[in-house]
Structure formats: C-alpha cells, structure tokens
TrEMBL record:
Function: E1-like enzyme which activates UFM1.
CDD domains: ThiF_MoeB_HesA_family
Example of a GO biological process term: protein ufmylation
Protein known as: Ubiquitin-like modifier-activating enzyme 5
Keyword Zinc applies: yes
Keyword Nucleotide-binding listed: yes
PANTHER family assigned to the protein according to its UniProt record, in alphabetical order: UBIQUITIN-ACTIVATING ENZYME E1, UBIQUITIN-LIKE MODIFIER-ACTIVATING ENZYME 5
Top-level taxon of the source organism: Eukaryota
Organism of derivation: Anopheles gambiae (African malaria mosquito)
Amino acid sequence: MEKSNEGAKMGRERIEKMSAEVVDSNPYSRLMALQRMGIVKEYERIRQKSVAVVGVGGVGSVTADMLTRCGIGKLMLFDYDKVELANMNRLFFTPDQAGLSKVEAAAKTLNFINPDVAITTHNYNITTVDNFDHFLGAIRTGGIEQGTPVDLVLSCVDNFEARMAINTACNELSLNWFESGVSENAVSGHIQFIRPGETACFACAPPLVVAENIDEKTLKREGVCAASLPTTMGIVAGMLVQNTLKYLLNFGTVSDYLGYNAMIDFFPRMSLKPNPTCDDRFCIERQRDYLAKPRSETAVAAEEEPEGPLHEDNLYGIELVADDADTAGKSDQQVAATTRGSNIAEGLKLAYDAPVVEAETGQVSVDNDVSLDELMAQMSGMCKPSEQK
C-alpha cells in the first residue's frame, strides 16, 4: 500500500518540447489542439512567457493552478500568509497543508502537476518599504531571459494597500497587469486590465478607503469575516486566466474591465481612461509617454477606411428586396390585410377574408360651383368661437 502511494506522488518526467500527438500520455495534446483548430497561431510560445501572481489565496491559487496546467514558462508566486483550515471552503489547498506557507504549499502541488514550469516563491509582504524594493526587483528581472521583466503581473490580493503597491511598481516599470477581486459578500467579482498610460491605473479612480487615507484595519469588526464562495472565486480566476492567455498568445479580445454579478449572472464590460490628474506621478509619466508614441498605421487605417459591404463578392447571389416592393400604391389597411393573409402557417386558413378598404376620401366636400370667396366665408364661420354668456 505504501509503494502505491509513493508511486502516485512521483509525478511525471519533464518534457522538453510540446507535442500535438494525440496519445493518452501527452499532457499537451489538448492544448496544442487550439493551434490545429486555428485559435492560437503557435501555442508553444507560452513556454517563453513569465507571469507573477501576487496573492495565492482563493483567486490566486486557482489562477496559478490553471496557468501551470496550461504550461506557462515561469511562474512567480508572492504571498506571506499560511494555509489554514478556514481556507478549505476554497479550491486548491488541502487540509494536510495547514500551517505551511501558501507559496511553499502551492509550489509543491504545482511542481507535481507540471514539472516543466519554473516556479519561484517569494514569502514576504510586498507593502513594507524593504519588501517593496524586493518585489520591484523581482518583477523587473523575472522574465524568461535573465535580466528581463515579467510579461504580466496578476494581482490576486484582498486588500487595497497591496493593490496600491502593485499599481505603483507596475507604473514605475511600465508593466501591464491585471487587477482582480471578489466582493465581501462573495456574490460578485471583477478583473481589470491596466496598461500604464493607456488605461486608468488603480490610483486614477481609487476606492474611498484609499482616497480618504483610511486605515483598513479600522474597518474590520471583531469576530466578523468576509464570505467566500469557491464558485465565485473560480469564475473570477477563470476570467483572469482566460484573458491572460488571450494577451500572452495574441488571440481574441482582451477585456479592459469584466465584471461578474452572481445574483443575476450579469457580466458587464467597460473601458476606463486614465486620469490626467492622477496622484501617482509614474502614472502621469506613463500617460505622457503614451501620448508621445506615434500612432500605429493599422489604427489610422481602421479609422480612415470607409465601411463597405460585408460580402462584396456575393458568391451565392443573395439579393435583398425592400419590404415595400409589393405594397406600392396600397393603403395601410390593404397592406395590413395582405400581411395578415400571407403570414399564416401552412395548413391553416382565415375564418373570413378581411374587407378591402377603399382609399379614404377627403372629409371636406367641395362643390365645384362654389366660388373661392364663398368657401373662405364658410371656413371663417367654422373657425369663429361660440359666444358664451
């Protein structure tokens, strides 16, 4: 029995090159099928991408799991918390990991799932002065190639202070990043794609708790904790990773902001422009940099190109016929009668035919023998108000 358990924990050997071969022993065959079906041009490029996941909790742990299963090249995990039994209502972590640091427990599980992914762990709070510098240096040099920055930063933290730290770092380094979150009542969430200088950063329109410099610790009530649902967190993590893959592998449309309301299954989307008076000086600098960039030729061509017919060649000879082609010269009643008769289903018939209404004649009868002066006099009498006593 012990041998069986040990064998199950051995995992698999590393794979040097992704293969599209459809065999049960190939963990990448279904991912490479996206390339065969024309969704992704070259899926194996994902091995050249590095992503930093900040916060390995309800959203971050599932995000890291999905990226690992997708074969991301390098994954950097940031967190300073420990696994608790209170976290077992969520996905990913297991009871035997209670007491371990989240990054340590996550790295062990993820390496077992996919040993091809290079995983680095950073067990510290990024909001302190010293640790912020460590975080800044880590994402500045955490790319696949030595000394290059990560391709994307994913914020999966649960507090505003950490979000602001990530925002400041990414603005300073001009790194694109995703902010994500789940509401305190666990029935809504969102992701926001932030491109410094091009879209609003987290400080451009900060929450009240940040704008008013309120200490978050004073908002927490003794014995009261936020709710969390693995369903909502899983959906938000799925939205986050889906848009991460679209961005890294260049397919589909990446959402600037995508929300989720579980109560009515509503997914709002929007775009947010940067605030020219943002308090973050690096955001202002990135805005200047973005405005100074020459506009791409494709963007200019898209605006100037006149909108033509969708299918100009018309291979199938399809023609559009105006709705009023058969109704010219007919009154509204005649058209309605014709329409009622033609819209009945096969096998049915009308109980009676609608009467054909002749074209209406004028309400005022004009006698050809009446002179114009007499007609004017009659009309004046009709318009004179009646006298009331």
